[in-house]
């Protein structure tokens, strides 16, 4: 059946009603706006994708130009043959595990107009970034003489770290310490690295950066690198390591400062890795029971002398670092703890032990009460006398 549809007033009212409903509900308007809105969505989507690509690209390039592994640095020897191109050198460095991307490295070298890379045998580390590597390669053997390796052992205090830096850079220990203790510099570091607690500015703190100079091997160009840059890299390393344990700190309800303070005590007490967790557990047990930690290294730090044997009267030294006199953690870290001690402070071994006594052999005797602890002391103290006599 054929018929012709007649548009009437009712249809007109229906169209107007639909127009009103679409307008109120945010629906499409007739004659164009729908297309404009679709175009806007497409443009916005493209912008988001482009932004994501740019962010990813920037992050990737920045990562590729940074150290391959600054947390666990390894020494790598690379021989660059005469006539090697930038691309050849990049490929060799990537294969040897010195850099992440030969393509990015070669591009960066060309961008910096560093085309005159010299042949030779070089000792690199996985803690060197692209700028440091290029600096060595452009200066050749001369560059190798200017690059030095600074190794900070676990348990070193700020003065000891300063001594190492001074020796390698040719500066005086006093000038290095002056930089490390400069309040304005420490505040600047605090702005970059939130792990530095405001408590470091307490007047009773010996050295504000104690505990923040991570013990590791670092490679620097002594001609171009200042003490501030060296110290900054050490603090950055500490933050990088602690970032790995953010969840653990949150679970334990510990601040970075509290963690480093406990880890430093464990570092000062433990001779072997297998004892770190047990020793940390003993200290946490004592804190829980409101018993002073009674750690000898804290008293030695308080008197600023680790070499001479402690005297009984020194256990009463009035210092916020003295854990014989004051309960709980000391006012701050007493050294630069290594990662094993940090792990131990985060994952203490559970036990009922409240005391421990270390023998010269390295064996640690753990006890649950003072009477048994005293028995261990009486039994093995003669060993320490012989040990001291033998030097």
Overview of the molecule:
By secondary structure, this protein is mainly α. The chain folds into three domains: 75-149, Endolytic murein transglycosylase (Dna Ligase, domain 1, 2-Layer Sandwich), CATH 3.30.1490; 150-243, no CATH class; 255-389, no CATH class. 53% of the residues lie in helices and 8% in strands. It has 15 helices and six strands. The strands form three sheets. It has a two-stranded antiparallel ribbon. It has a two-stranded antiparallel sheet with strand order 3-4. A two-stranded antiparallel sheet has the order 5-6. A hairpin with a 5-residue loop joins strand 5 and strand 6 (364-367). InterPro entries: MLTG-like (IPR003770). One of its GO terms (molecular function) is lytic endotransglycosylase activity.
């Amino acid at each position: 059946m054929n018929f012709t549809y007649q548009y009437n007033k009712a249809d007109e009212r229906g169209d107007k009603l639909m127009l009103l409903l679409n307008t109120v509900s945010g629906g499409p308007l007739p004659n164009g706006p729908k297309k404009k809105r679709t175009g806007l969505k497409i443009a916005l989507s493209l912008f988001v994708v482009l932004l994501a690509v740019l962010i990813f690209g920037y992050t990737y390039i920045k990562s590729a130009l940074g150290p391959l592994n600054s947390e666990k640095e390894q020494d790598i020897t690379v021989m660059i043959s005469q006539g090697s191109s930038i691309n050849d050198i990049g490929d060799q460095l990537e294969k040897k595990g010195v850099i992440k991307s030969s393509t990015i490295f070669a591009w960066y070298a060309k961008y910096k107009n560093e085309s005159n890379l010299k042949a030779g045998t070089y000792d690199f580390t996985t803690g060197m970034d692209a700028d440091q590597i290029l600096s060595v390669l452009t200066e050749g053997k001369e560059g190798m003489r200017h690059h030095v390796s600074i190794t900070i052992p676990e348990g070193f205090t700020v003065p000891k770290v300063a001594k190492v830096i001074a020796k390698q850079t040719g500066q005086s220990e006093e000038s290095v310490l002056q930089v490390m203790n400069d309040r304005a510099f420490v505040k600047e570091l605090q702005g970059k690295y939130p792990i530095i607690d405001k408590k470091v500015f307490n007047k009773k703190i010996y050295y504000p950066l104690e505990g923040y100079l991570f013990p590791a091997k670092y490679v620097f160009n002594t001609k171009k690198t200042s003490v501030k840059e060296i110290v900054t890299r050490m603090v950055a390393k500490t933050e990088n390591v602690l970032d790995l344990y953010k969840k653990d700190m949150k679970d334990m309800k510990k601040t970075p400062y509290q963690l480093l303070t406990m880890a430093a005590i464990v570092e000062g007490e433990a001779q072997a890795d297998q004892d770190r967790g047990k020793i940390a557990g003993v200290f946490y047990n004592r804190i829980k029971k409101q018993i002073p930690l009674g750690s000898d290294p804290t008293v030695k730090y308080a008197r600023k002398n680790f070499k001479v044997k402690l005297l009984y009267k020194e256990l009463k030294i009035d210092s916020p670092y003295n854990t014989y006199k004051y309960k709980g953690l000391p006012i701050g870290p007493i050294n630069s703890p290594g990662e094993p001690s940090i792990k131990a402070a985060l994952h203490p071994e559970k036990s009922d032990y409240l005391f421990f006594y270390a023998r010269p052999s390295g064996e640690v005797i753990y006890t649950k009460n003072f009477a048994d602890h005293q028995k261990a002391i009486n039994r093995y103290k003669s060993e320490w006398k012989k040990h001291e006599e033998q030097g």
